[in-house]
Amino acid sequence: MIFSVRWKSTRGGALAICAVLLLSLLKPNAEAFTASSSAALKLRHSRATTSCFMVPKYDPMSGRWEPSDDEEGQDAGYPPVGSLIRQGPVPFIQRLKDPDMYDQAVLKMMATSDKPMSRDEAQGNMDAYFQNPNDWALQKFEEKNGAPAFDYANANMEGDSLILTGAWAGLLLGLVGRIVYVSAFGCDEFCRQYHW
């Protein structure tokens, strides 16, 4: 009712109220546009700073990624046992089966990342990708939406985790070794006495 009375009484006052209402409605939308443009500015800035670092280069003649310095070469990262410890047997076997493909994937990861990435970080990400691509992609999607970044380069490298991994690996290798031994040489005295 107050607005209708003012509308009838003064035309200038009504226009001022409409302008205030219109601006109050547009203000959250305007902030949304400025946030996205600042996010785009941050993305452009991060890409600009990435280009300042030495990243692997793609050679279109050979169709291969080439390291720009020794810190990006195959010998710079952690060994295949590091892949086994960090992410398990799948990336370890993949790395032993086709080391050139693994190296090319790591170099491409380093070159196409939004932020500068070391060889260890790229190897950790590729190991996680080879272990489970869907979980890796989901984690990266969540990181883009504000979740904390997971450190794949140092995954499963804490002391407790290494001890647990070593204990499980020892038990499994002992069990598999015993099965292979009994299969190859037949039942021995231990097997006859304990039925195993």
Offer a concise description of the structure.
With 196 residues, the protein is mostly helical.
Primary descriptors:
mainly alpha; 2 strands; elongated; two-stranded antiparallel ribbon; single chain
Form type = elongated
Helical percentage: over 70%
The chain-level structural class is: mainly alpha
Number of helices: 9
Q: Could you tell me the number of beta strands?
A: 2
Q: What is the alpha-carbon Rg in Å? A: 30 Å
The overall pLDDT, averaged over residues, is 76
Estimate the strand proportion. Answer: under 5%
Strand order of the largest sheet: 1-2
Extract low-pLDDT stretches. Answer: 1-10, 20-52
Give the termini distance in whole angstroms: 92 Å
Major beta-sheet overview: 2 strands, antiparallel
**SSE order, one letter for each helix or strand:** HHEEHHHHHHH
Write the layout of secondary structure elements.
Elements: H1 2-9, H2 11-52, E1 57-59, E2 64-66, H3 80-87, H4 89-97, H5 99-112, H6 119-131, H7 133-144, H8 159-185, H9 189-194
Antiparallel strand pairs: 1-2
Helix pairs in contact: 1-2, 3-4, 4-5, 4-6, 5-6, 6-7
Can you walk through the features of this model?
The structure is a single chain. This protein has nine helices and two strands. With 196 residues, it is mainly alpha-helical. The protein has a two-stranded antiparallel sheet with strand order 1-2. β1 (57-59) and β2 (64-66) form a beta hairpin. The longest helix has 42 residues, at 11-52. The radius of gyration is 30 Å and the shape is elongated. Residues 1-10 and 20-52 have low confidence and may be disordered.
